[in-house]
């Protein structure tokens, strides 16, 4: 009985470490902004405009906020609203 307690503790810690490593790998491989943009660019059904919009959206999330010139897409969207 006394042997199973330390084994179960180390087994649980090993299982949790494996789960954390797996989630980090999935996040980096499939859910990172770079992976999402690459998937959008590889998609045959996505138009260049959709890929550009996704790239601009992900860029806004990745880069820190700072003053910048409006993108071509923002200029086109602003022109279509007025």
Secondary structure layout:
Layout: H1 4-31, H2 33-42, H3 48-62, H4 72-81
For the report, how would you describe the main beta sheet? none
Encode the helix/strand succession as letters.
Answer: HHHH
Question: What's the N-to-C terminus distance?
Answer: 76 Å
Helix content: over 70%
Domains counted in the coordinates: how many? 2
The total beta strand count reads 0
| Alpha-carbon Rg, integer | 22 Å
Low-confidence parts, pLDDT < 50 over ≥5 residues?
none
Mean pLDDT over the residues: 79
What fraction strand? Answer: under 5%
User: Which structural class do you get from the secondary structure elements?
Assistant: mainly alpha
The best one-word shape is elongated
Report the total helices: 4
In brief:
This protein is mainly α and 82 residues long. It has 4 helices and no strands.
